[in-house]
């Protein structure tokens, strides 16, 4: 054995040992040395003088590229890892381990068709004969994710029926009938390109980065949030450093300044099929800009327009989801989101018309105008949605202000609701206007409908609960508090019509990812006083 061969053997042995010990960075360094040595030996070996030796060198080089790709993929350096896979496959086109590694990377990048091709090719390698179950498992997974991504057909029902135990169904990235465009609300927004029914998915996307923790008391909670925010920033920085595409996606988000001058991106840039353009490790990061972007666009998981499913509901979480960041606030929102693992599932909470902007409520919009103005200013903007404009005109009426002050002072809520309903008749408030005002005073309505004493006194003088709920849902979409009042009503006088109303509200709240039987189970849990 020559000195070079002995050195290669030592490098190969040590690198493999580090790989098995999951010391990824150190193994990458040694595999890089091995690759350089192999390539040097190949260039110095004449093909006709020693073809067997040359074949062994090529085989060693293929394995080294393959193993380095695996280590890089573990560090989520996917672009570099794919390059190594391609180098290995140039040497041996059906190399089993490389095809599996490349397929798994493409799955992580949500490139399901390309991943499917890799796993199909792996079936033709003789090395795969003993691993057919593994390959077929990946093939099945690719097909499911590709179907989800293409159709938006997701089903979390089994996970829900199992009490959220175990891992939820693995989710694909999905972009529904939406596009980014100029918004009359603020800067750019996300708009429906066709009519969307309540409960229908708008998009499913995975976080660029996310940080979770448990918050204690007030002082410790503030400290914990600061630590989490620092960790979150570090994770975003790492994600940006690893991949140029991630940096480009984050870079297009708003910093809160010059909203009118921001470019409207084409939707193709958000789709996983777009080609990777290499890693950006050599590019200087503008951390001040990134911090401004995170300050404007980060989302907390437990929010008024969100529902966290599964074990993560026990934690405080903050994350960055690129396309979700384009969704503006409105006090008459039409969308909600579910958090499942690191994914956000956005769905219509009420029917949405083509051309209508998709909106969340950033703060509790089941509140009177004055409180909403305070909350919007604390978010750094002044809401000018159709509901706020309508209520600005109506709230100039002294009687409405008197009702609000009376409720703050603890007057009989039934009397306040009656006075509001009578006032709307005198003020000629019609249609959505009724829904807007009822939403503003929803806490009072909910208290009346939840009290046998109040209903005995005022029940015949105010609209039925179903009428009020329907009018609020028309302008606000489904909300957990609305659903709770309807479910409470089912306990007292449940019927088929009432249960169907609850099911419709449930679809708007949870979305169509939870099918009828699982949704029925969730509602029955609520009816049995065990919470949602």
From TrEMBL:
Keywords: Methyltransferase, Transferase. It comes from the Eukaryota. PROSITE patterns: SET (PS50280). InterPro entries: Gramillin-biosynth_MTr (IPR053209), SET_dom (IPR001214), SET_dom_sf (IPR046341), TPR-like_helical_dom_sf (IPR011990), TPR_rpt (IPR019734). CDD domains: SET_SMYD (cd20071). Residues 176-363 form the SET domain. This is Methyltransferase FGSG_00040. It comes from Gossypium hirsutum.
């Amino acid at each position: 054995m020559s000195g070079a061969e002995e050195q290669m053997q030592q490098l190969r042995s040590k690198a493999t040992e580090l790989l098995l010990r999951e010391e990824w960075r150190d193994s990458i360094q040694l595999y890089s040395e091995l690759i350089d040595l192999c390539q040097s030996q190949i260039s110095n070996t004449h093909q006709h003088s020693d073809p067997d030796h040359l074949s062994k060198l090529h085989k060693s080089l293929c394995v080294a590229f393959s193993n380095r790709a695996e280590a890089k993929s573990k560090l989520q350096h996917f672009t570099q890892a794919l390059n190594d896979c391609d180098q290995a496959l140039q040497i041996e086109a059906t190399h089993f381990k490389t095809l599996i590694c490349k397929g798994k990377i493409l799955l992580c990048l949500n490139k399901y068709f390309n991943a499917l091709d890799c796993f199909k090719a792996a079936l033709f390698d003789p090395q795969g004969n003993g691993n057919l179950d593994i390959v077929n498992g990946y093939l099945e997974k690719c097909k499911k994710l590709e179907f989800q991504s293409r159709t938006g057909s997701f089903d979390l029902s089994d996970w829900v029926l199992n009490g959220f135990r175990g891992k939820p169904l693995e989710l694909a990235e999905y972009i529904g009938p939406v596009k980014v465009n100029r918004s009359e609300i603020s800067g750019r927004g996300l708009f429906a390109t066709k009519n969307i029914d309540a409960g229908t998915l708008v998009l499913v996307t995975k976080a660029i980065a996310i940080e979770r923790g448990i918050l204690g008391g007030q002082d410790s909670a503030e400290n914990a949030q600061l630590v989490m925010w620092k960790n979150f920033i570090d994770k975003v920085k790492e994600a940006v450093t690893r991949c140029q595409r991630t940096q480009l996606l984050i870079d297009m988000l708003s910093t809160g300044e010059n909203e009118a001058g921001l470019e409207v991106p084409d939707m193709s840039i958000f789709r996983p099929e777009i080609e990777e353009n290499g890693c950006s490790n050599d590019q200087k990061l503008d951390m001040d800009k990134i911090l401004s972007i995170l300050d404007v666009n980060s989302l907390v998981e437990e929010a008024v327009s969100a529902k966290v499913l599964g074990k993560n509901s026990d934690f405080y979480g903050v994350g960055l989801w690129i396309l979700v960041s384009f969704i503006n606030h409105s006090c008459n929102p039409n969308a909600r989101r579910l958090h499942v693992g690191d994914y956000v599932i956005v769905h219509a909470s009420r029917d949405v018309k083509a051309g209508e902007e998709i909106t969340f409520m950033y703060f509790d919009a089941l509140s009177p105008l004055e409180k909403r103005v305070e909350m919007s200013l604390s978010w750094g903007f002044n809401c000018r949605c159709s509901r706020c404009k309508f209520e600005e005109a109506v709230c100039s009426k002294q009687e409405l202000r008197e009702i609000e002050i009376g409720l703050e002072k603890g007057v009989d809520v039934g009397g306040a609701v009656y006075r509001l309903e009578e006032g709307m008749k005198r003020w000629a408030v019609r249609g959505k206007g009724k829904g807007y005002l009822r939403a503003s005073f929803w806490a009072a309505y909910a208290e009346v409908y939840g009290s046998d004493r109040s209903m005995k006194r005022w029940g015949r003088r105010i609209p039925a609960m179903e009428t009020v709920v329907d009018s609020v849902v028309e302008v606000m979409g489904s909300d957990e508090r609305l659903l709770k009042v309807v479910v409470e009503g089912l306990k007292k006088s449940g019927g088929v019509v009432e249960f169907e109303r609850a099911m419709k509200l449930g679809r708007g709240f949870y979305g169509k990812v939870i099918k009828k039987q699982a949704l029925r189970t969730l509602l029955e849990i609520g009816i049995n006083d065990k919470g949602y």
